[in-house]
Amino acid sequence: MKFFTEIDRLLRGDATRASSLRAGRIEIAVRTLLIACASLGALYGVFMGLFAAMGPNVNIGQLLASSLKVPLLFLLTLVVTFPSLYVFSALADTKLRPLETLRLLLASVAVTLSLLASFGPVTGFFTLSTDSYAFMKLLNVALFGISGIAGLWFLRKALDSLFDSDRFLPSPAAEPDLPSTPKKEGAEGASDDEDEQEDDDAVLAQPLPPPFMPSQVASRLPPVRRTSAEAARARLIFRVWTVIFGVVGAQMAWIMRPFVGSPDLPFELFRKGRVSNFFEAVLQTLGTLLN
Amino acid sequence: MTGRLAPVELLLRSRGRFSASSRRVPWNQLVLIILATGSIYGFAMGSFSGLTALWGQSVVEPERRILQAIYSALKVPALLAITSAICLPSFFVLNTLLGLRDDFSAAMRAILTAQGTLAITLASLAPLILLLYCSTERYTVASISNGLMFFVATLAAQVMMRRHYRHLIARNPRHRVTLLVWLILYVFVATQAAWMFRPFIGDPQLEVAFVRADDWGNCYVKIFEAVTRFTSGR
Questions:
Q1: Which of A32, A234, A260, A270, CA to CA, is 20 to 30 A from A89?
Q2: How many independent structural domains does chain A possess?
Q3: What predicted TM-score, i.e. pTM, was given to this entire model?
Q4: Which residues span the domain enclosing B177?
Q5: In whole angstroms, what is the distance from residue A127 CA to residue A121 CA?
Q6: Contact B6/A201, CB-based, under 8 Å?
């Protein structure tokens, strides 16, 4: 029951309130998020595999395979796209630390899968009332698309409240610190590895130092301008990432196919032959349906 | 983020001992980062023919294909190191000529940090390359996408280079010249070095090889010959 309460809090946006995001945390455990992704994805996978299970070949295997593949699809897409997102947001020196970013992305995947699971009965209803494989494929593409957009909307809302928060204003204490930084580094020359690691965390936890510019140039730039530029950079990175996530997800789904399972083909965990891609396949299916 | 990734994070954010103003340059960490992340990308890059074999297309000696990935894992960091080693003497002399010797260690730090950024960015793009290899059997697509990944990583490295050079240029505008010369020289040498070190991806129709030693030559001459052939219509 506690599990559903947690998911409910996530969907209501209570877990990603501006106040907690500002403190750099999302009030929901990674374990809960992973369990949510696995169970909600599996639930929709069952509805998705129902078409093959009820077809002439009665492919029960497809039902099981789809319930494993749906959560795996989202998590693998995250695995493929997260490293580059991390590198580019660190390079732009945004406030987002890797673990928090990962948790936020997992939360958006959980939101996507919650909506998708809630579409389960719709898919089930159409499975019972239609014979057209092409229609079922496109219906699933549409439902995945809608859920994905909802997940990204959730992500964007969370990021907005994060970037607009005053956490980005450099604290006045940061500036007097700067001249002393080189001295600190020099003094620690002989420290061993463990000390260095603690030091790493301390350095990363510090507010952003002023940009590396001669003082006369830096003094002409108001600090707020840099922070808003930083938020703009972070937003741009996330926008580009969103597109990459979508394309990678679509292609990942193509590689992991079949999800619905053609009624004319025997059950296979993965289809052989990987030439072509997701987008070509959707256009072809659309052509089949219209002809 | 603690533990082993912390130096990477500090490097990308130019903080702490990786900041442009830090006195102590963590040379050994920089070299380790370049070796490790360069190898990760190299391994992914060289796994094309192995993956193609896995997916059932007939290839020459499928069981030896893993070697191509291992070769590339060794060759990517080597490519970065050798190119830098070739370019450094002229860079050093140029810096001295322009009276920038006092800043040379800062310039070296900028160069190594940029190489680190290049290698880290490449490693972060490795899963994308693997996904792409799972989606195509065409060698041309594989080589174009790897070119694209190197281009993106070079842009990231330039961001880092400029970040480090900003305060050097503010101190002496002549640093602009050395920055530009380094970029041109590096790309010029790296292109030829990459040609000599090929194959990185490994054409599934050709044999696995550490280098294609029988056909070294000069890539610029080859390009020129190809262009002449094309224009003369032969």
A1: A32
A2: 1
A3: 0.80
A4: 3-231
A5: 10
A6: yes
